[in-house]
Amino acid sequence: MRLRDTPEEQAFRAELRAWLADVLPTLPEEPPHDDWPARRAYDTGWQRRLFEAGYAGISWPKEHGGRGATPTEELIFLEETERAGAPYVGCNFVSTLHAGPTIIAEGTPEQQARYLPPILRGDHVWCQGFSEPGAGSDLASLRTRAVRDGDHYVVTGQKIWTSHAQVADYCELLVRTDPDAPKHEGITWLIMPMDSPGITIRPIRTLTGVSEFSEMFLDEVRIPVENVVGAENDGWRVAMVTFGFERGTAFVSELLGSMRLLTDLVEIAKMTPVDAGTAWDDPGLRRELALIGAELEAEWALTKRNVSRAERHGTAGVGGSVFKLAYHETRERMGQVALRLLDRAALALGDPGGVSPRRIDHVEQTLYALSLSIAAGTAQIQRNIVGERLLGLPKER
Ligand SMILES: Cc1cc2nc3c(=O)[nH]c(=O)nc-3n(C[C@H](O)[C@H](O)[C@H](O)COP(=O)(O)OP(=O)(O)OC[C@H]3O[C@@H](n4cnc5c(N)ncnc54)[C@H](O)[C@@H]3O)c2cc1C
Q1: Shortest-distance atom of ligand 1 to CA 163
Q2: Does 246 qualify as catalytic in the annotation?
Q3: pTM for this one?
Q4: Whose CA is nearest to atom 32 of ligand 1?
Q5: HSE value, Cβ hemisphere, 13 Å, CA-based, for 392
């Protein structure tokens, strides 16, 4: 495990820090949480700035327009952008972090030339149509059917939890092309243009009151055969390539953001009157917050270990699952402490009157943290992975 920056990495960090200091004050104000067209414009605007400065597709290979950064440089990029308060990847999550990389790994040269440049420039937003009402953890049992008709597939079925579907231009879609084959062998990975006739998007309102994801109904949607990535019926293997990218560095910005939330919580404790003093006078609370701080530091060290491993072996291995399990448990505990500290102000989302926006942020973040045990593979599925691949326990039947 390597903890110190090399001279090249130091230079990269310094150059990035200087650029962030210049560009961040020129950004427009962040739009409201649930104004998706405005959020799309904001997120793609940031992607455009990254592109113009040479930071788009930070870990993408240079021949595909990326920066070709090493995993450590990517970590530095995530660390510096988060610490400077730069925008999160937002609506560009799917396109830049896993659809684009999957097309680089598995797409044809024509697909690469057509789809990759607009992703890097922030012109196109993608979504992920994998999960279905009856296929989440057991994704291979998906039932959305694609029937070949000349040089098109005719696709009918339902997807769910499709993040950013309402503002996406393309969807990475898993469909069943051979219903008679064993379930892992009849699946195909398709690129679906979101303006195709037959697509109905129905936004789902989450606990925090925003419609981040949607149900997506597909009624005889015609998708050209040339939009297959990989080969027909080889989609399960291609999906595993996508997951390899999706579960890579996806939670690094999250972790750094949590460190900021913890510092803020300490400040709130110091300002919260209790009896003649403040909440911070309570040694029990201080111990709880210190423990959470230590855990976040340990998870940051684990991230660096995973990145060092990825540099040597090409993948973080089971380390990604270990990290995700530990991290979501820390976040849940931090949420419980936050709600206790906020007391009555924790009972409402939004401003019940006279409550500072920083406190409202903690309520939202605590509710949001519940999704960390589900998104990108549930906690139980991560435990199965750790049990089988790291601890050598018997395989699940
Ligand atoms: C914020 C967020 C964003 C998302 N965005 C997208 C997206 O853009 N596109 C997309 O396709 N999907 C998306 N998802 C869906 C996500 O991938 C699924 O929710 C997840 O895979 C779990 O599937 P499920 O909800 O069907 O739960 P289920 O698979 O039905 O699981 C229900 C419960 O059973 C447990 N369980 C299931 N199987 C096992 C097992 N073998 N061993 C032990 N326990 C088990 C699970 O851990 C869970 O507790 C998103 C989810 C969230 C929370």
Answers
A1: 8
A2: yes
A3: 0.93
A4: 137
A5: 0
